[in-house]
Structures are given as structure tokens and as C-alpha cells.
Amino acid sequence: MRILLLSDIHANLEALEASLAAAPSFDAVVNLGDIVGYGASPNEVTARSRDLGKIFVRGNHDKAVTGLLELDDFNPMAASAAIWTRNALTSQNLDWLRALPQGPIALPDFPQVQLVHGSPNDEDEYVVSLGDALAPLITRTTPLTFFGHTHLQGGFFVNDSSADGFRPEYRTVGQAESIPLQLKAEARYLINPGSVGQPRDGDWRAAFALYDTDAQVVHFRRTPYNLKVAQDRIFAAKLPPRLATRLAAGR
Ligand code: ZN
């Protein structure tokens, strides 16, 4: 089975459509949350996400926009985008986002794989460093966890003799590219497919991944998208302009 892994789309319709166009054939879609927030196409991205699949975990922005999380912990830019998004969403889409499940959840038919937005230990925790990753990697027995939230593509592993982090190393800065990671049976992994709609690893291209369950390979992917259209929508919506400019830098 080939599973398309999407995370942190953040209402960026252009990045989502480019990712779907660039993705090779897949059997199912997993969405790791933060469908909305920051970007200017929350209804379009929510509708597209709903059409694509049934496997979701909720993100902190999905919670904040729908009133499940106080805005106190958000910086002013994120908070103002959350309020804008709440006002822009249809009541139907708000209800649907509010009902998204809390992670971690098991991947249907693959109990050795779990899905979460932040950390397996806390859905809102950021797993940025190896230190952050070690606690869930050591205390949890699930061999493979897919997570999002940091907007950093890559991940962490632990086996009997070592532990480390990894990032895919691409050759270009503007082409569609794919980098495979062969999973080893003796290791446990935390893997982030990266952010579709607001990457923060210095690469502006939309990030996503494909998990081949038969071959046990995760294919990290980047694809260029129509940045200008996504930015112009943010300017036109009178969202904080920095939300548009940061997309170009991937920060
Ligand atoms: Zn996010």
C-alpha cells in the first residue's frame, strides 16, 4: 500500500494542489493536522482535504480556529490569522475541523504505525531536536510514528546501538525532487513529512512524503508551487503580510 502523507497545509491551496499533482499514485491519504491557519484559502483546503481521505489527526491551529484551544499561547501573527480564519470558515467546515480526532491514533490496518500532530506524548509538543525525540522513541514501543507541527522535513531514529536525526538532502532549490529512506526493521522512527503549505526548513518548496508499506520505504518529496498566487491571496485577505513573505524564504 502506498500512503500519501500530508501535514501542515495551513490553508495554502496552491501548495496542496501542486503536491497532489507531483505525487505518484497512492492508495490512501494521511493528514497530520494544521489544515488551516496562516494561509488565505481555509475553505478550499478544508474541502479538498475532506475529499481526499478519512485519516486525520487534529493540529493546534485546527483547535485554535475552532475554539478548542485558547489563543493565549499563539504569537500575535498566529492569533490574528486564527481569528481571520474563524471568520472566513463556513460553519460546516468549522464543525468538521472541530471534530477531528486527537492524536496519536493508529494507522488503520497498520497497528505498528501511529499518527500524531506534535509528539506521541503530547499532541501540542514540538519535536525539534533529538532530545525531544528520544523520550517518545524510548518509552513508546510503536516502531513508526509520523508527526508534523515543526514544519521541518526529516526525523529521528533509535536502534540498539545508536540514535540520530536525519534530513533529506536535495540537489536543487527549485525542482521537484524525491529522496528515499529505507526503514530498518530493528529501528524505531519518528518521521515528519514536512509542511505542505508553510515550510520552515529554509526550502520554499511544498514538502510531503509517500510511505510504501510493502517496501518499507518513505519517499520524502519537495515540489515547487505557484508561490505568487498564494502570497497575493494573503495580501488581498489583509492577513499579516509576513505570512506571505515568509513563504518565499521557507522560514
Ligand atoms: Zn503547523
If you had to describe this structure to a student in words, what would you say it looks like?
The chain is globular. It has one domain (2-249): Metallo-dependent phosphatases (Purple Acid Phosphatase, chain A, domain 2), CATH 3.60.21.10. With 251 residues, it is an alpha/beta fold. Strands 3-2-1-11-12-9 form a six-stranded mixed sheet, with helices on one face. It has a six-stranded mixed sheet with strand order 4-5-6-10-7-8, covered by helices on one side. The chain has eight helices and twelve strands. Zinc ion is lined by residues 8, 10, 34, 59, 61, 149, 151.
- Total count of domains: 1
End-to-end gap = 33 Å
**Average pLDDT, all residues:** 97
Helix content: 25-40%
Structural class: alpha/beta
**Beta-strand residue percentage:** 15-25%
**Uncertain regions spanning at least 5 consecutive residues:** none
What count of helical segments does DSSP give? 8
Radius of gyration of CA atoms, rounded to a whole number:
17 Å
By CATH, the architecture is named 4-Layer Sandwich
CATH topology: Purple Acid Phosphatase, chain A, domain 2
Which cofactor or ligand species appear?
A: zinc ion
What form results from the Cα inertia axes?
Answer: globular
How are the strands ordered across the major sheet? 3-2-1-11-12-9
H-E order? EHEHEHHHEEHEEEEEEEHH
Task: Write the CATH homologous superfamily.
Answer: Metallo-dependent phosphatases
Task: Sketch the major β-sheet.
Answer: 6 strands, mixed
Number of strands: 12
CATH class: Alpha Beta
